[in-house]
Amino acid sequence: MDNGEDRVPELHSLQQKVEYMLEKTFPGQKVSGRTFAELVKERGGALSHSYFSNILAGKVTQPSEDILKALGLGFGVDWRFFKEESEVVGDVVAGLQFLAKRRTGEISGVAGRGVEDDGLPAELLEFALSLLADTKAKQRSETAPDGEPGPGA
After folding, report:
1. How much is the mean pLDDT over the chain?
2. In a domain, 135, yes or no
3. Does 26 fall in a domain?
4. Alpha carbon separation from 95 to 21, 24, 38 (Å, rounded)
5. Contact 40, 73 (CB under 8 A)
6. pLDDT tens digit sequence for 75-131
7. Cα 50 versus chain centre, distance
8. For residue 57, which phi and psi values (nearest 5 degrees)?
9. 74 neighbors 47 (Cβ within 8 angstroms)
10. Is residue 152 part of a domain?
11. CB neighbours (10 Å) of residue 106?
12. d(Cα 69, Cα 66) in Å, to the nearest integer?
């Protein structure tokens, strides 16, 4: 059954893409321009809070590649997502949907299909291992120190 979650939303403008990323990256949070600019700075980029506010207001529609790279750093996605007619929009949206389903338990494992002789790409292997580590940590936190299941298990 298709409930619309798996479809790529219509994201044409820079403003739409940034609003979408704010909603998906920081669900239920109000992220200020200053907070986002500081996050970009912590990750090695540069973006002023006023410029970010202008993007959200729709006043900036054709930023430089450096600004797009800063947005990518801030949201932790490929900066090309923010380009006009970007071919990576679907990939980014699919990745966010995967993570959301992983967090809610709809997806509990990952299987590789069509893996070449040299194995998984390093980035995919690192991602899969991080999911495994997260799952193990969650399981440990649900177990009491005496090895018996905790109250939430």
Report:
1. 76
2. no
3. yes
4. 12, 11, 24
5. yes
6. 998 888 888 766 666 667 777 777 777 777 776 665 555 555 555 556 665 666 666
7. 23
8. -85, -5
9. yes
10. no
11. 11
12. 5
Report the distance separating Cα 104 and Cα 39, nearest Å: 26
Here the tokens at position 93 are 């949206």
Q: Look up the CATH number of the domain holding residue 33.
A: 1.10.260.40
- Number of structural domains (the chain) is 1
Q: Which residue has the tokens 């907070």?
A: 35
Other CB atoms within 10 A of residue 116 CB = 8
In this prediction the pTM is 0.55
Residue length of the chain: 153
pLDDT at 96: 73
Domain that holds residue 20: 14-91
Structure token digits, residue 127? 């991602």
By the 8 A CB rule, do 6 and 97 touch? yes
In sequence order, the 6+-apart residues with CB closer than 8 A to the CB of 51 are: 60, 63, 67
CA gap 88, 98 in Å, rounded: 15
Distance, CA of 13 to CA of 23 (rounded, Å): 16
106 located within any domain:
no
Which string of DSSP letters, residue by residue, matches 8-65?
Answer: PP---SHHHHHHHHHHHHSTT----HHHHHHHHHHTT----HHHHHHHHTT--SS--H
What's phi and psi for 15, nearest 5 deg? -60, -45
CA–CA separation, 101 and 95 (whole Å): 10
